[in-house]
């Protein structure tokens, strides 16, 4: 704004574009009339007039009529929005006078410059307005400067719009379509935002349901971040103090410093007395914290008087070596105890076997057996083979299988046990056999063909070298193997019940197919579809167990032996016994039992594999095993606590292979429920023996 004599001058510069849709009125033109003359007689007069026009033109440009409004036209709505005021009747505007105008500006270096120009030198596009309305214009400028971005955009759009009377019908239709598209886009964005928000909410709810927080109740934002998270921090501190005190006491003893030695030993005994058998801070005896403080003070004083870096380091290394030896001894002891517990019969199961055997002979059940022998050889039925000396475990396998079949009368269970448990097994299934199914119990000692002249394992067990290796703990070979050999001393590896699976055609000569089940499995689905699987001429149908580099042939066999490396692939995928469908026709054609005998004889000195039934099984059925889907058989519930619950519940058969059998106290607690739900807790035999499996 440039102030002249009582007037306000609004500049319109080419560098500042005017408002859109606004045009400036040209100044009032000077009406000049010339009388008509003849062209030949008015030549001189026209020249004079031209000179006069040139002289009067600047004056005409500088004059602005006071009664003319030079403001741009606009609609009433735009004038109201911009607070436009028509400056009609500007009394103070003196259009006929020339005014001096002072302009100030800042140059590139920041210095203020001023210069004066005359109004007559201004462009004709510059417009004068009445100074009485200057305050109103300044107020409009301030209000526009303080408006929000949305108001500015709205004002700009309002300037671009025409009144309804100015729009043609075609433009009016386009405007309506544009408005509809804008509203549709806005509605789509809002709906999209709602859908995204709803989806995020659903995902958050799903994540919260899957969250398994073991430390419930600690959600307060006001909780102490540094609360005692470790319940044995004080206990560990006191144990560390005892270690350092022993080191300093040893140094004091070597220096014959009895005062320090006696003082340290006194504090060591006091700390050990406070610890006792504690496993956490809450189990420490009263006064333990004060004794820990006293021990800290005496250790600080001992460090000042007895500390020698080399001596202390030497003492600590000796103590570390001693502790490592103790850890190795404890591990060996732990392994031995686990193996001992795994092969020990629980008291309740031993009681069960005794009661059943007693009732079998006392009540004469040995003479009351009624059995339909035709079913035992009927190939139209579904036949199962179970070899076990555990009465309760066998009953769980039979009960869980019979629970999920549709026609129990078409299912036959062939059970083979040893002479010691034969009466108990017969008595149990005579009284507690599932309704509809057929159970047939046999004694392995009744198989006269199973002798040392025919069976390689029985022949090897008669040798003195094998007896010394497996039954004399002080044998040099046993001592050299250490705790790794302990698991192979389990009687199941020497029992013929464990190797009877390689003689299926001899045990069941009239059957074409049979499903083998271990006594540590639980059936969760109907297994009858296994009989309809086309195994493409294979003998054994089993689930493969290889995962990446685990459970492949090189895990079980000694590939440093040329006989193994020449005949087998070390990366071949292993499989598991426990649930196997055997085609006995193909078995006989392939002479599987003969292959088993061949490799069992080669391993007489145990150089091909360790004791057990799985390694010879991998060799015997090499390239003769049909892989079943993993959902048929899930393993590891007897040693791997990380088996997923979802995988267990989807499996047809779950297998408790390993030392942690479900009927032992060693069992993994969260897996036991799948087995214990088939235990008949209301059975009088189990109640009398106080058999509890919770």
UniProtKB/TrEMBL annotation:
Source superkingdom: Eukaryota
GO function term, MF aspect, one: polygalacturonate 4-alpha-galacturonosyltransferase activity
Keywords on record: Cell wall biogenesis/degradation, Glycosyltransferase, Golgi apparatus, Transferase
EC number in record: 2.4.1.-
Pfam family, one: Glyco_transf_8
Record bears the keyword Nucleotide-binding: no
Protein name: Hexosyltransferase
Species assigned in the record: Anthurium amnicola
Upper lineage: Eukaryota, Viridiplantae, Streptophyta, Embryophyta, Tracheophyta
Gene name tied to this protein: GAUT3_3
